[in-house]
Amino acid sequence: MDKFVIRGGNPLLGTIRVSGAKNAALPAMAAALLAEEPVILENIPQVRDIETTRKLLAAMGAEVELGYGRAQHRTTLCCRNLVSPEASYELVKTMRASTLVLGPLVARCGRARVSLPGGCAIGARPIDLHLKGLERLGAIITQEHGYVEARAERLRGAEIVFDKITVTGTEELLMAAALADGETVMQNCAREPEVADLADLLNKMGARIEGAGTATIRVKGVATLHGAKHRIIPDRIEAGSFIVAGALTGGDINVAGCEPRHLGALLHKLDEAGVKTVHNADSVRVISDGPLRAADMETEEYPGFPTDMQAQYMVLATQAEGTSIITENIFENRFMHALELDRMGANIKIEGSRAIVRGKTPLSAAAVQASDLRASASLVLAALVADGETIIDRVYHIDRGYEHIEEKLRGVGGQIRRIGEILPKRAVAPAVRA
Ligand code: EPU
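A: This is the predicted complex of the input protein with EPU.
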């Protein structure tokens, strides 16, 4: 297991480039299951979840080419000859987004068998709303031995009202409805840019979707979809993480290749906290030269403040003058980073879904553990301002969703390096005599 060793205290200076959005790329790869012709996706981030999706699709018989570097982070997916519409527990357990294949598989093949994901570090995260929606579209759903099976000769359009806003749930049903017979109207949909990006791709493939990015989406089902070429939107959470890094370290960085329109709630909150940002069409410059002020924050569905930026914002709150109350409204268990931050000198008290952060407290190096993707990012940010050398264990979490974060941060002056685990010499077991 790799670790990061980070020496804090350097202001970040220069330009840092944002990769394609993991959470847009994953549904886009699943969408390729809907067509027989190749789907070409550009701006695919080089992260572990993409590799997991490649394996998942390949196990079903898809041909997936994945090229990075000069190949422009591109993948070509051809799902002409699917052999088995199944997603095994082995893959689903490492990445919940694997359940995104359920909708497209049942729509295209009439049958899908996908492992239930189970709970995870940030909450229970059921997929009941995905299943309820598929049933509304006429699928017969059965659950057995931890697997969900969906069957339908042909899905048919229906009215779906989500009881709760769900990002992958909206994406799942968008893909299923694209090939259903008749019109589907979905209400209370997630408005995340990743949902709109998926709809853009599906429309390029011949789908007839209107309203993606709003709470009501209309889908006129078509009989088949064809191949298409699509460029994935920039990762707003990676961009946000770098913006907060700039704000924290008192530097001057330009976060390039992002979409400032998707960062509204974060930039607004940072302004309240005393962080100056200037943006143009595709970059955000962060100039952090004054003191940070405490500002309360609540996570909400888009366009509200993203839960995926809560942990990073908490680090900022530890460095702001005054008390910030951070309320997590999306996931019930997303404060694992708070304990680790406390070990670095933060003063954070958790009361149910609220974290009370008293600042400003100097942070100092400690040995800490990453518990999930965004919690890991927050530890990296904390280490960049901490006094001394922090060691972060289990960085495989961060590799799931941040492309070469250590190289990118080094490029703007961060002192961060990756080390492999040094295994202790194996003790020689004493001989046992009967
Ligand atoms: N929920 C249900 N039933 C469902 C679906 C969701 O109760 O059938 C609940 C969840 O338990 C949660 C809330 O609804 O309390 C919202 O969950 P949502 O379904 O929107 O989350 P998701 O689709 O599983 C995506 C991102 C997450 C991100 C959330 C919220 C992907 C692949 N994942 O998850 O990203 O935190 O939306 O914005 O798009 C990450 O990248 O680190 C990450 C966790």
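The first helix runs from residue 22 to 31. The chain is about 30% helix and 25% strand.
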